[in-house]
Write a structure and sequence with these properties.
The chain has about 375 residues and is of the alpha+beta class. The protein has one domain: tRNA-splicing ligase RtcB (Alpha-Beta Complex). The protein contains eleven helices and 17 strands. The strands form four sheets. Strands 5, 6, 7, 9, 13, 14, 16 and 17 form an eight-stranded mixed beta sheet that branches. Helix 6 packs antiparallel against helix 7.
Length: about 375
């Protein structure tokens, strides 16, 4: 059995658990996989390492993309100056998102070129796990020229949305697993073409979903905004004569990206560099990466901190999460150091830092 070339882009100062490394090397044994890259946020997933990219010229593996096809990050610049944003008032008004979106789902899907019956009832919902919507302000600007070119403003508040294709991606993956478990799809075959069509619909659905979530938040807050960035980190796309699978890996060839830390740390806006991008399969870290599993986070934190403690972060931001387990599972302490992740990407000459954003309010879920 031929093993793919594996490269992990991380310094000795970045802690990566052995389980994640083992998962990466197991994936390198898959038929047709020729290159595997682990990024500084690499961590163990459910059988597949997260924070990784996989390239094959001959095969597509749906399970390497996972169930949340199209999951990604969108960033909107609002029309509200940061000095006028009132966190107390905003926190009270951010309710109702667990209820279905009241808009015209069929019309929204049709406008996006999607079937009118494609999971319209889930549109506008954030989802659980590590998904969130967050209000932020500018913390620091590192590259003024790139900042201005991206039409970003120092003075306004921003909205970042992290969500994906919700149940749609899950249905697509489960259908594939029922048909052939984790066996690959041969590029050019009818089953592969059919999966890629469904995959592309799920990616488009996820982009639309982030757009609707942002509109719901702005409406609730009496604000408006314009999208500046939207990137997908769970996908399979054509690349260099083959197919590039990204599992928790942001694209390094689509312009500016956001790389969030935990809810208690900054988000980086970075400009990918192309000179050495092939070393990382034109992929970048999509966040800080988990340090502890969800069960570990609960066990370590729920005896030391109250829920009220977890609703405020060390940098003074607020957390809206009325799910007692989730607020511990997604605690800042459960994540790696975002500054080290960015340092490693910079040292590898894969990015330049443009700016950092500081969270004001992170929204996870309210009780229904």
């Amino acid at each position: 059995m031929t093993k793919a070339h594996v490269e992990i882009i991380a310094s000795d100062r970045s802690w990566i658990e052995q389980t994640a490394i083992d998962q990466l090397h197991q994936s390198a044994l898959l038929e047709g996989i020729e290159r595997v890259v682990g990024l500084p946020d690499l961590h163990a997933g459910r059988g597949i390492a997260v924070g990784a990219a996989f390239w094959s010229r001959s095969h597509v593996y749906p399970h390497l993309v996972g169930s949340d096809i199209g999951c990604g990050m969108g960033l909107w610049a609002s029309d509200t100056p940061a000095r006028r944003f009132k966190p107390d008032a905003a926190e009270k008004r951010l309710t109702g998102f667990e209820e279905p979106w009241s808009g015209d789902g069929e019309a929204a899907l049709a406008e996006a070129g999607l079937p009118a019956d494609l999971m319209g009832g889930s549109l506008g919902s954030i989802g659980g796990g590590n998904h969130f919507a967050e209000i932020l302000c500018i913390d620091d600007i590192a590259d003024q020229a790139a900042f201005d070119a991206a039409e970003l403003s120092r003075d306004c508040v921003y909205l970042m949305v992290h969500s994906g294709s919700r149940g749609l991606g899950h249905i697509i993956l489960e259908r594939q697993l029922e048909r052939q478990n984790v066996r690959p799809l041969t590029v050019g075959s009818d089953p592969c073409t059919a999966y890629l069509h469904e995959h592309d619909q799920a990616v488009a659905w996820a982009v639309l979903n982030r757009k609707i979530i942002a509109a719901r938040f702005f409406e609730r807050l009496g604000m408006s905004g314009e999208r500046r960035i939207d990137i997908c980190h769970n996908s399979v796309t054509p690349h260099d004569g083959g197919w590039l699978h990204r599992k928790g890996a942001a694209p390094g060839d689509r312009g500016l990206i956001v790389v969030p830390g935990s809810r208690g740390d900054v988000t980086y806006v970075v400009q990918p560099r192309l000179e050495k991008a092939d070393r990382a399969l034109h992929s970048l870290a999509h966040g800080a990466g988990r340090k502890w599993s969800r069960s570990e986070a609960k066990a370590k934190l729920n005896r030391r901190f109250t829920v009220a403690d977890m609703q405020r972060t060390k940098i003074g931001s607020r957390v809206i999460c009325e799910d007692r387990e989730l607020i511990y599972e997604e605690a800042p302490q459960a994540y790696k150091d975002i500054h080290q992740v960015i340092h490693d990407l910079t040292a590898a000459e894969l990015i330049d830092v443009v700016a950092t954003l500081r969270p004001l309010i992170t929204y996870k879920t309210r009780r229904v």
